[in-house]
Here is the input.
Amino acid sequence: MNHKIKVLFLDIDNTLLDFDAGAAWGMEQCFRKAGLEYRSEIFPVFTEENNKIWQRIERKELTMDDLFYVRWQAILAHLGLQADGVEMEKEFRRLLHLTAVPVEGAKEILEYLYKKDYFLCAASNGPYDQQINRLRSADMLRYFSHCFVSEKIGADKPGKQFFDGCMKEFSGIHPSECMMIGDSLTADIAGGQAYGMSTCWFVHSGDKSMNTRENGGKVADHIIYKLEELKNIL
Here is the structure.
């Protein structure tokens, strides 16, 4: 056990739960309901536009509330299609609420870390009820002492206010005794680093060429390509 680290903050989407798998299924259902043809090769458009929007939320150019009115409008515009974007967002959220596809090895690593007596905390941007429901559906909720979700905290990762909201639950614990584990270099790694936490970047794609910055600097304290590799660190 890494004795210095006491608290682990774990991202949810594309770290513990396969957001892409759930989103692709949700997108297909939304398209059908809106009378649009869905083909699997258009899912990358969702990913591209969704990532752009979340980056704007992280930069405070948009809020979580704006997501409701811009996500599907951006995707439809990109594809040159017309439909009611707000209705599609409502349906997409309803469906996403139901999806809980675990990332390979997620349950096993939570069990391992739980038995090691770390404080395990979920740390996620997104709607609170949706994220809690998905963790519960995947039988992961029981491992967490706290679930920190941006909607409830009132601030998004990577902002200092998000991490302030988490750390106020741990009086007497210093950020250097915490590790942020996640797939996003901006929300998880940059956010954790700026707050003084140790960081572990989970390369969800498993692409081993993704491990260095162009300047050769170290991108995170640890880089893993499979969740089970956390056993080598913690």
Observations:
- The radius of gyration is 18 Å.
- The first strand starts at residue 7 and ends at 10.
